[in-house]
Write a structure and sequence with these properties.
Strand 6 (116-124) and strand 7 form a beta hairpin. The protein has a single domain, classed as Class I glutamine amidotransferase (GATase) domain (Rossmann fold, 3-Layer(aba) Sandwich), CATH 3.40.50.880. It has 231 residues and is α/β, with parallel strands linked by helices. The strands form three sheets. Strands 2-1-3-4-11-10-9 form a seven-stranded mixed beta sheet, sandwiched between helices. Strands 5-8 form a two-stranded antiparallel sheet. The chain has a two-stranded antiparallel sheet with strand order 6-7. Helix 3 crosses helix 4. The radius of gyration is 17 Å and the shape is globular. The longest helix is centred in the middle third of the chain and has 13 residues, at 73-85. The chain has helices spanning 13-19, 22-29, 73-85, 95-103, 177-188, 194-202, 210-222; strands spanning 2-6, 36-40, 56-59, 90-93, 107-110, 116-124, 127-135, 137-141, 147-150, 159-162, 166-169.
Protein backbone atom coordinates (compact mmCIF):
# COMPACT_ATOMS: atom_id res chain seq x y z
CA UNK A 1 0.00 0.00 0.00
CA UNK A 2 1.40 3.36 -1.04
CA UNK A 3 1.11 6.18 1.51
CA UNK A 4 1.67 9.78 0.45
CA UNK A 5 3.19 12.00 3.14
CA UNK A 6 2.10 15.62 2.89
CA UNK A 7 4.90 17.50 4.65
CA UNK A 8 3.72 20.73 6.25
CA UNK A 9 6.73 21.47 8.45
CA UNK A 10 10.38 20.58 8.93
CA UNK A 11 12.42 19.39 11.87
CA UNK A 12 14.95 21.89 13.25
CA UNK A 13 18.22 21.89 11.34
CA UNK A 14 20.07 20.92 14.52
CA UNK A 15 18.14 17.60 14.69
CA UNK A 16 18.05 16.62 11.01
CA UNK A 17 21.37 14.83 10.78
CA UNK A 18 20.92 12.70 13.88
CA UNK A 19 17.16 12.15 14.08
CA UNK A 20 15.81 12.88 10.60
CA UNK A 21 13.05 15.05 9.18
CA UNK A 22 9.33 14.65 9.87
CA UNK A 23 8.67 12.18 7.02
CA UNK A 24 11.57 10.02 8.26
CA UNK A 25 9.91 9.74 11.66
CA UNK A 26 6.69 8.44 10.13
CA UNK A 27 8.48 5.97 7.89
CA UNK A 28 10.23 4.62 10.99
CA UNK A 29 7.02 4.54 13.02
CA UNK A 30 5.04 2.68 10.36
CA UNK A 31 7.87 0.38 9.32
CA UNK A 32 6.98 -3.30 9.18
CA UNK A 33 3.37 -2.70 8.17
CA UNK A 34 3.93 -3.24 4.46
CA UNK A 35 3.71 0.37 3.31
CA UNK A 36 5.74 2.26 0.74
CA UNK A 37 6.02 6.04 1.02
CA UNK A 38 6.39 9.14 -1.10
CA UNK A 39 6.67 12.68 0.27
CA UNK A 40 5.33 15.93 -1.14
CA UNK A 41 6.60 19.14 0.50
CA UNK A 42 3.31 20.99 0.46
CA UNK A 43 4.86 23.71 2.65
CA UNK A 44 6.88 24.58 -0.50
CA UNK A 45 3.77 24.46 -2.69
CA UNK A 46 4.47 20.95 -4.03
CA UNK A 47 1.26 18.91 -4.22
CA UNK A 48 0.21 15.57 -5.74
CA UNK A 49 -1.64 15.81 -9.03
CA UNK A 50 -4.66 13.92 -7.71
CA UNK A 51 -5.98 12.42 -4.48
CA UNK A 52 -5.93 8.96 -6.09
CA UNK A 53 -2.17 9.12 -6.69
CA UNK A 54 -1.68 7.19 -3.43
CA UNK A 55 -3.86 4.70 -1.57
CA UNK A 56 -3.66 6.75 1.63
CA UNK A 57 -2.41 10.12 2.84
CA UNK A 58 -0.68 11.33 6.00
CA UNK A 59 -0.32 15.00 6.97
CA UNK A 60 2.59 15.82 9.26
CA UNK A 61 3.06 18.28 12.07
CA UNK A 62 4.34 21.83 11.59
CA UNK A 63 5.51 24.87 13.52
CA UNK A 64 2.89 26.88 11.60
CA UNK A 65 -0.69 27.53 12.68
CA UNK A 66 -3.49 26.36 10.41
CA UNK A 67 -5.08 29.83 10.71
CA UNK A 68 -1.96 31.59 9.39
CA UNK A 69 -1.85 33.20 5.95
CA UNK A 70 0.28 30.81 3.88
CA UNK A 71 -0.32 30.27 0.18
CA UNK A 72 -0.22 26.47 0.54
CA UNK A 73 -2.94 26.19 3.20
CA UNK A 74 -6.06 26.79 1.02
CA UNK A 75 -5.00 24.19 -1.60
CA UNK A 76 -4.20 21.74 1.19
CA UNK A 77 -7.69 22.21 2.61
CA UNK A 78 -9.15 21.63 -0.86
CA UNK A 79 -7.05 18.46 -1.18
CA UNK A 80 -8.36 17.23 2.18
CA UNK A 81 -11.96 17.72 1.13
CA UNK A 82 -11.29 16.05 -2.22
CA UNK A 83 -9.73 13.01 -0.51
CA UNK A 84 -12.71 12.79 1.83
CA UNK A 85 -15.09 12.96 -1.12
CA UNK A 86 -13.14 10.27 -2.97
CA UNK A 87 -13.02 7.95 0.09
CA UNK A 88 -9.20 7.89 0.08
CA UNK A 89 -8.11 7.34 3.71
CA UNK A 90 -6.18 10.15 5.38
CA UNK A 91 -4.37 10.45 8.72
CA UNK A 92 -3.44 13.77 10.31
CA UNK A 93 -0.97 14.30 13.16
CA UNK A 94 -0.82 17.53 15.22
CA UNK A 95 -0.94 20.23 12.51
CA UNK A 96 -2.43 17.53 10.27
CA UNK A 97 -5.12 16.88 12.87
CA UNK A 98 -5.88 20.59 13.03
CA UNK A 99 -5.87 21.36 9.30
CA UNK A 100 -8.23 18.47 8.59
CA UNK A 101 -10.61 19.76 11.25
CA UNK A 102 -10.43 23.28 9.84
CA UNK A 103 -10.93 22.08 6.27
CA UNK A 104 -13.98 20.11 7.35
CA UNK A 105 -15.64 23.02 9.14
CA UNK A 106 -14.14 22.89 12.64
CA UNK A 107 -12.29 25.64 14.48
CA UNK A 108 -8.69 25.75 15.65
CA UNK A 109 -7.29 28.31 18.06
CA UNK A 110 -4.21 29.07 20.10
CA UNK A 111 -5.46 27.52 23.30
CA UNK A 112 -5.83 29.89 26.24
CA UNK A 113 -4.86 27.08 28.61
CA UNK A 114 -1.34 26.98 27.23
CA UNK A 115 0.94 24.20 26.04
CA UNK A 116 1.05 20.42 26.20
CA UNK A 117 4.65 19.18 26.01
CA UNK A 118 6.19 15.75 26.44
CA UNK A 119 4.67 12.49 27.62
CA UNK A 120 0.91 13.05 28.03
CA UNK A 121 -1.90 10.70 29.02
CA UNK A 122 -5.07 10.37 26.93
CA UNK A 123 -8.24 8.34 27.11
CA UNK A 124 -8.78 6.56 23.79
CA UNK A 125 -12.28 5.15 24.22
CA UNK A 126 -11.53 3.76 27.65
CA UNK A 127 -7.92 2.83 26.90
CA UNK A 128 -5.10 4.75 28.59
CA UNK A 129 -2.64 5.94 25.97
CA UNK A 130 0.60 7.86 26.61
CA UNK A 131 2.07 9.84 23.72
CA UNK A 132 4.44 12.74 23.34
CA UNK A 133 2.74 16.09 22.74
CA UNK A 134 4.08 19.40 21.45
CA UNK A 135 1.35 21.97 20.84
CA UNK A 136 -0.47 25.06 21.98
CA UNK A 137 -3.04 25.19 19.17
CA UNK A 138 -6.07 22.95 19.56
CA UNK A 139 -9.25 21.93 17.77
CA UNK A 140 -11.71 23.84 19.96
CA UNK A 141 -14.81 23.03 17.87
CA UNK A 142 -14.87 19.75 15.98
CA UNK A 143 -16.53 19.37 12.57
CA UNK A 144 -19.97 17.82 12.34
CA UNK A 145 -18.49 14.82 10.51
CA UNK A 146 -16.01 14.06 13.31
CA UNK A 147 -16.42 11.74 16.29
CA UNK A 148 -14.16 12.12 19.33
CA UNK A 149 -12.21 8.91 19.97
CA UNK A 150 -9.53 10.32 22.28
CA UNK A 151 -9.00 13.19 24.69
CA UNK A 152 -8.21 14.39 28.19
CA UNK A 153 -9.17 17.29 30.44
CA UNK A 154 -6.68 19.62 28.72
CA UNK A 155 -7.45 18.64 25.11
CA UNK A 156 -11.00 17.37 24.63
CA UNK A 157 -10.66 16.76 20.88
CA UNK A 158 -7.32 14.95 20.92
CA UNK A 159 -8.28 12.21 18.46
CA UNK A 160 -11.02 12.40 15.85
CA UNK A 161 -12.51 9.86 13.47
CA UNK A 162 -14.39 10.82 10.32
CA UNK A 163 -16.23 7.54 9.60
CA UNK A 164 -13.75 5.31 7.73
CA UNK A 165 -12.13 8.14 5.79
CA UNK A 166 -9.98 10.18 8.17
CA UNK A 167 -8.33 9.51 11.52
CA UNK A 168 -6.48 12.33 13.27
CA UNK A 169 -4.41 12.66 16.45
CA UNK A 170 -3.26 15.86 18.19
CA UNK A 171 -0.28 14.22 19.90
CA UNK A 172 2.88 12.95 18.17
CA UNK A 173 3.15 9.13 18.13
CA UNK A 174 6.14 9.57 15.79
CA UNK A 175 8.13 11.57 18.40
CA UNK A 176 10.43 9.49 20.57
CA UNK A 177 11.98 10.82 23.77
CA UNK A 178 15.20 11.95 22.05
CA UNK A 179 13.27 14.04 19.55
CA UNK A 180 11.24 15.80 22.26
CA UNK A 181 14.45 16.39 24.19
CA UNK A 182 15.92 18.00 21.07
CA UNK A 183 12.86 20.17 20.51
CA UNK A 184 13.03 21.39 24.09
CA UNK A 185 16.65 22.40 23.56
CA UNK A 186 16.29 24.18 20.20
CA UNK A 187 12.66 25.37 20.11
CA UNK A 188 11.37 25.30 23.66
CA UNK A 189 13.39 27.92 25.52
CA UNK A 190 11.62 31.26 25.63
CA UNK A 191 8.52 29.79 23.95
CA UNK A 192 7.26 27.08 26.28
CA UNK A 193 7.10 28.07 29.98
CA UNK A 194 10.10 26.75 31.93
CA UNK A 195 7.98 24.81 34.48
CA UNK A 196 6.35 22.83 31.65
CA UNK A 197 9.74 22.09 30.12
CA UNK A 198 11.00 20.88 33.49
CA UNK A 199 8.07 18.48 33.90
CA UNK A 200 8.50 17.22 30.34
CA UNK A 201 12.20 16.65 30.99
CA UNK A 202 11.34 14.56 34.04
CA UNK A 203 8.92 12.46 31.99
CA UNK A 204 11.31 11.72 29.11
CA UNK A 205 11.79 8.15 30.30
CA UNK A 206 8.09 7.42 30.62
CA UNK A 207 6.95 4.42 28.53
CA UNK A 208 5.00 5.46 25.45
CA UNK A 209 2.25 3.77 23.46
CA UNK A 210 3.63 4.78 20.06
CA UNK A 211 3.65 1.18 18.79
CA UNK A 212 0.00 0.66 19.68
CA UNK A 213 -1.04 3.89 17.96
CA UNK A 214 1.14 3.08 14.95
CA UNK A 215 -0.72 -0.23 14.72
CA UNK A 216 -4.03 1.62 14.98
CA UNK A 217 -3.00 3.94 12.14
CA UNK A 218 -1.83 1.02 10.00
CA UNK A 219 -5.10 -0.83 10.62
CA UNK A 220 -7.04 2.29 9.69
CA UNK A 221 -5.21 2.59 6.37
CA UNK A 222 -5.70 -1.10 5.54
CA UNK A 223 -9.34 -1.30 6.60
CA UNK A 224 -11.59 -2.66 3.81
CA UNK A 225 -13.73 0.10 2.36
CA UNK A 226 -16.74 0.27 0.12
CA UNK A 227 -15.66 1.64 -3.25
CA UNK A 228 -16.87 5.10 -4.18
CA UNK A 229 -18.81 3.64 -7.10
CA UNK A 230 -20.88 1.49 -4.73
CA UNK A 231 -21.07 3.99 -1.84
Amino acid sequence: MRIGILQTGAAPDQLLGELGDYPDLFVRMLGGHGFTFQTWRVLDGVFPDDVTECEGWLITGSKHGVYEDHAWIPPLEAFIRAAYGAHVPMVGICFGHQIIAQAMGGRVEKYAGGWAVGATEYDFEGRRVVLNAWHQDQVVARPAAATVVGGNDFCANAALLYDDRMFTVQAHPEFRAEFVDGLMRVRGKGVVPDPLLAVAQERLGMPLDESAVAGQIAEFFKRPRVSLERA
